Amino acid sequence: MTDTRDIGTIAGVREMQDFSNGLRGEGKTIAFVPTMGALHDGHLSLMREGKKHGDVLIASVFVNPAQFGRNDDFNSYTRDTDGDLKKMTAAGVDIAFFPRSDEIYPPGYETYVDVTELGKPLCGRFRPGHFRGVATVVLKLFNIVKPHAAVFGEKDYQQLQIIKKMVSDLNLEVEIIGMPIVREESGLAMSSRNSYLSPEEREKAAYLSLALRQIKKRFDGGERDTSTLVKEGYVVLGGGSIGEVDYLEIRDGATLRDKALAAPGDVAALAVRIGSARLIDNTVL
Amino acid sequence: MTDTRDIGTIAGVREMQDFSNGLRGEGKTIAFVPTMGALHDGHLSLMREGKKHGDVLIASVFVNPAQFGRNDDFNSYTRDTDGDLKKMTAAGVDIAFFPRSDEIYPPGYETYVDVTELGKPLCGRFRPGHFRGVATVVLKLFNIVKPHAAVFGEKDYQQLQIIKKMVSDLNLEVEIIGMPIVREESGLAMSSRNSYLSPEEREKAAYLSLALRQIKKRFDGGERDTSTLVKEGYVVLGGGSIGEVDYLEIRDGATLRDKALAAPGDVAALAVRIGSARLIDNTVL
Q1: pLDDT tens digit string along B127-137?
Q2: For a designed S-S bond to B8, which of A228, B15, B95, B280 qualifies (C-beta 3.0 to 4.6 A apart)?
């Protein structure tokens, strides 16, 4: 695939469903990458992986109002349709789905999906309603795009676990594939929100991944006490002096329950506010 | 169809999904009637209608724990698998799906669907969590049985509106068909819970439909004031002396919002506790 070929674009929900029904009627498999646009190399790695999991690769761009809180960055979130289309074309996407917000949430919309326990800790404590909005829009997109497989990034680790749980609990026949975090040279996890950072803030932001690496290093060296490991992470974060730390925690990698003793497969996760950006990162121990 | 032919039975979720995927792969359409068993003529009317809406008719029997409250009649709810199977066979059901509770809600189950506004009034006020349980199990059953059309009774009027709204909001491609209430000669709406009634209680229960008929008669005669209409209904109920009235209300037929003035298409709905039975009934004006 080169970036000179045509990429199909669809905006209508009914048109998308008809298209996907047609593919399924022909026995074709569908791979799906849902995004909020402002695409970076992290997203593109999901799309390249998606190519391996279906005859047709569909990617969506939808900045989902239901997952933003009142004080979140919904209005300032980066929109770059032309740039996104070029990147999707280069990454091998066959159909770009750009649904309209008023068709996803028409007047009187009132149905929401909640993954009740996994949505409570970590980001759930600081962004009430966020994961309800995520689960709801992902379920809707699955019902519209009808994928056999869908690819999500592990940077949003809690989101990935919630989607896996929703798929299992609701008996959806969609294979959920998680892909490793893509990082800048400094270690900073790729994020559309990195664009909010000034050069000085970007230097501070590099300490997020350094804190997680320190925790992983001490874990690999034999330390198991989670409060000791977390304290080591806080030291790297300068006791919070690089930004306001929403959380830095070690939790079970599947259930996200907190633990006194860390074990392989657990996740160390953090969220830190630097300037106007709220950044998240994690590492699996 | 006669009641001597073989009816297929399926209990496993995976087996049901494979069977339905196979039907869809052959281009066959699926009609679905979900029930909690203890089948009566009301259910059978749904099944006979279902025959018209698909090449294959699937009916499920599942007493859904998620829609019963702590003090509800989950444990005493009538179970009659053999009787249900005979009735389903006679009604033309092709596949009877009897899922196991521990496969529908395995340990750690935690995903729920909420239709937030429609679930609040009427029965929602008296049975917290009930409609969340209904919406969740219906969504799961749709994901397992994969119907093109599904048939529900209008006796559970609020449930029917909630399911229609869920289907629309979540972009499900399932046609929802509502069927009129089937009544005994006395006017009593058919219900599995009528079996809880003593002969004396059954006589009292006949006043539920009489109250609704009186409201409809006065509405047809030109009365529009909902509080006047409701008062007339209460008179027929003997001011509540035949049982504890949870509610008797007139509401918009689609949004279930309350109204000062009734209009065609509005619904008069009631719930009354008589002995150990909580009975519901309604009529559309």
Answers
A1: 999 999 999 99
A2: B95
